[in-house]
């Protein structure tokens, strides 16, 4: 039990899990690359880490899955820690509105993406990391291993290569931004790095532990190392809150009320500052590309604990 | 002193006020109608209400100003309390992206505005209130007086009428939505109601007291009356967080980290759930239409208290 | 027979009429106002006027119908004759791309419509005529009677009033442009004038005779009066060519290859400079809002005569 | 003298040339690749070919320049002759409206470009040719040599390669369309072919002779070979008329009144069906990217001959 609030998280998660697990939610597993398409759609895992102590888990919480876009928060964090507020010269912090604005916005805003959690913004962040890391892929993996506290985290090269073969839209985006001068390196190199970031695999437990630093104002709970400042951590959370769920950021904010991020692999991670981080995994996605059971789990969690940031 | 956190708000506000008051920030007073243009640009007031006790004020905090768009949160609240989730059939909860998308989004999304805090969404909310209130203007004013605890609150009819004379864009928006069937009443009637809502005048003190209910999960601190449910209050806060500052919602979230709403009269109100509400007034607006000193005040407040929802 | 080219137009039109008349083309009569909805969908008339002599007709060519948007070419012509090239300060001459760009284009281009044949452009032209005519409705009707050579031409007031009751989109457009300062008169007055222009009724014969001046370089064939200069007539034709069929201007240019203009009443008029003008009427419209049989008639005409401007 | 109309073209061109040559028109030479930037901005040549006989020339009419986008009409012609109307399943015939709609239109219209003369459309045409020609680059060059009647026409490989190095926007476009399935071949291969097409160099004389077939209903004047059918030639002309000048197609149509096409190398070609073709070259471009002197020359030509298609 998480001592701070005397909430019985295990009981609440267990109830939610039972309630949701056997409902046949609509939705489809991401199928644009074979590696994601072959995942068992019925997988369902939850892991919640309280800041000071407890860990609570249900279902397939120790099984690896592709974190995909969730990686964008972590690459943002590394770039922010290296560049500080200079970062915001190359990417904004505003929500992006509906999906088909992304290209017109790049056009009218001179190749500056709206925020670092949409594809265009994550590509700019990748470009910054390629410029600033000595061995981008190796250095980034070291960073992830450090903040997750797990040396077992790996890229899935098959997934990364598969993305490359079908990534025409990302190729379009990066070349479009290059035409505005907002990509400094060779587009192929940046794309290769970006696809590797997205191919990282974690379990719910690893993912929840990795994001615990954002509930802890930027400091690792284990070692006490400060990854980003208190102010920077607040800002990363604010960006997750307003931009973390594509065209469903408002909906998530409205129903769940926590900063979070989803990925097309079916993972969702959310944090409650000063309290906990939670990762949910269920591969079936709703029409907006977010895990159906993941969204429902978090909605029930904040409703039943009567705790959200609002 | 607000007992809960042992923070000396008066000292902090006093420091911030001194620091900001005499800096000559750039910006212009809204001048599209004469009544707003003639306001003294140097006015600057702050009022903070803690949930359980203290009230802290600085400067022109007892002077009336036009709350303008801040009224949209209150009309949303009244409509939400009457209609419940049926409301969301006629207006969304997603941020709107950059300003010139409003019309194209109405076009591609069949006249359903993105959220209730942009003009199109507030017009739909006004239409709903016109349909559901017996005497719309009188009933709405009664509602505002109840939640503010002040019988002195009034519409400024001169401001409302002046808006009508220059409100061609709002006339365009409402007729465009009417063409999609998402306005049920006569456009003129709804516009008249809408311009009256925006013409309400409050002092910083009244405004902070009015919004205290959103820090208190929907319940009035004075009478204990529940205006909206705990869940509904959370949702109004979430909408303020993602949509409260036009094209600067992300920026406000990023720098301040509190749900809030601004108006072109120079007012900004923000709330920290379970802690306080705060209203700031300074008429000079930045390029995005938000009070320059108001934004700065709130940024310094959350930085110095080290308290935000993130 | 039109002596100039020794083409037997009567035979060609007769063949085309027979071929098309009994085919059950898909499409719907415009039904947004009752007066248009009650027209017999099977009506089909053709009238072709050669410049020097012959008149050739088939079917319901002497029955009145609502010319609707075809009127926009005539109001443009009157405004152009009065204002000359100063006109182009308030409206452009470029095609408008796809329909839902009209509003975003007004936004990005400061309220200047792309061309005078889309609704926004025709509203600006109406505003110009309201400013410049002493008795706008009476003076405009006199102009139409002069160029058509027929005193029997009338507005249909019932149609005009009906348009007003459902014209929310046009109300939106005109108020939006007014907000940019590109409408000088009261929006209601301009709309009333605009809806009257569109309500004019003509027969195919009258319509063909009215447009003959554009085949004759701006001069009336009967009286020899010069309505617009040779250069101005060329320009009106060029605008019809590039902008006359909403989102199907390219298609019409591609298949027919003549300058022309359509209306939702089912009329289409086209001209071949130095040769003829032709009006076709059939109320069933294709998905783009142009008369299905009208388009087919003109395509067959230019294919079989092997004469187009290209 | 061109016998048909007894117009003294040499005298008219000579007058126009004198009038324009020494005026210091504003404008800049295209400078995005070094090969174009180093062209002498003062170059100015004209060549007019009458259908039956005469050739009239002024200035630098025998100097080679890069035809750039003018090539799009020729690649369209070859693809149209091979595919017939099946071509229109992959590209439209409507004008594209203002430039920044190109990407949003591809998004909303599923990767089908608006017409074959904008970059996206020309890339689809290039993809079709790559699929259908045995040796694309060699076969295309043979085609151009045949219709121009000149074996001296060459690609400029330095120009083509230079385009590749800066062609990020075209890379973006082709990958975006590939993501919709409207590009069948490898993007790199298609881009290489496309950049070669645009690098072709011609003199004004060669260019005018090449386009004479479109004044002659698709048939080569020299050999009598039919390149495209009468109907196809009409359609290519119609597309030039509505789409040949980027965002200035309406302006060109309005002022000049002939089908034509421009390129950023400073060339413009136009044709008057049944009469003549004309090529003008002057490297200084106006803000829309069309040759300033070229536009003026053609405007004066149609004004003084009092002959346009309208």
SSE inventory with pairings:
Four copies of one chain form a homotetramer.
Chain A: H1 9-21, H2 34-37, E1 45-50, E2 55-59, E3 65-66, H3 71-83, H4 101-108, H5 119-132, H6 136-148, H7 157-166, H8 168-179, H9 187-198, E4 201-202, H10 204-215, H11 230-243, H12 249-255, E5 260-262, E6 267-272, E7 276-281, H13 292-305
Antiparallel strand pairs in A: 1-2, 1-7, 3-4, 5-6, 6-7
Structural key phrases:
homotetramer, 310 residues, Beta-lactamase, two-stranded antiparallel sheet, 10% strand, hydrolase (chains A, B, C, D)
What this model shows, in words?
- 4 copies of one chain form a homotetramer.
- Chain A is an alpha+beta fold and 310 residues long.
- Chain A is built from 13 helices and 7 strands.
- Chain A has a 5-stranded antiparallel sheet.
- In chain A, strand 6 (267-272) and strand 7 form a beta hairpin.
- Chain A is globular, with a radius of gyration of 18 Å.
- The mean pLDDT of chain A is 92.
- Chain A binds chain B through residues 92-98, 101, 105, 108-109, 114-115, 230-231, 233-235, 237-239, 241-243, 247-251, 253-255, 257, 259, 273, 302-303, 306, 308-310, and chain B through 92-98, 101, 105, 108-109, 114-115, 230-231, 233-235, 237-239, 241-243, 247-251, 253-255, 257, 259, 273, 302-303, 306, 308-310.
- Chains A, B, C, D: InterPro entries: Beta-lactam/transpept-like (IPR012338), Glutaminase (IPR015868).
- Chains A, B, C, D: This is Glutaminase.
- Chains A, B, C, D: Pfam families: Glutaminase.
Count of individual helical segments of chain A: 13
DSSP strand content of chain A: 5-15%
Largest interchain contact? A-B, 41 and 41 residues
Quaternary structure type? homotetramer
Helical percentage of chain A = 40-55%
CATH superfamily of the largest domain in chain A: DD-peptidase/beta-lactamase superfamily
Report the structural category of chain A. alpha+beta
Organism (chains A, B, C, D): Pseudarcicella hirudinis
InterPro entries (chains A, B, C, D): Beta-lactam/transpept-like (IPR012338), Glutaminase (IPR015868)
EC number (chains A, B, C, D): 3.5.1.2
Family (chains A, B, C, D): Belongs to the glutaminase family.
